[in-house]
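Entry 14. Structure prediction run on the chain below.
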Amino acid sequence: MSQTDEELSRETAAGGAPRYSRRLSDKILIAFHHACDQGDFEVSEQLLHILEMMLTRRPLTPDGTRRRNMESLVAAHERLWYLRHPNTGDQ
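Output returned:
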């Protein structure tokens, strides 16, 4: 994945220190979907396990996004299952 100069400049704060605009779990979810799009189910599954580990451990701060995170995790599991079993939805 390459970033444009504009994207890199948006993610760099004053003084050249990186400013992260997305949580690590969001980036892993994006990578999961990218791997699914590429048909690399082994990588998708590994990324899903990492995401699951991150989201199911005790949260460091209660930020109220746990339910949304879990819904995203369930949707990711469903997507991978349907991609691995494409003929089950045809009935």
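The chain is about 60% helix and 0% strand.
Filed with the rest of this week's runs.
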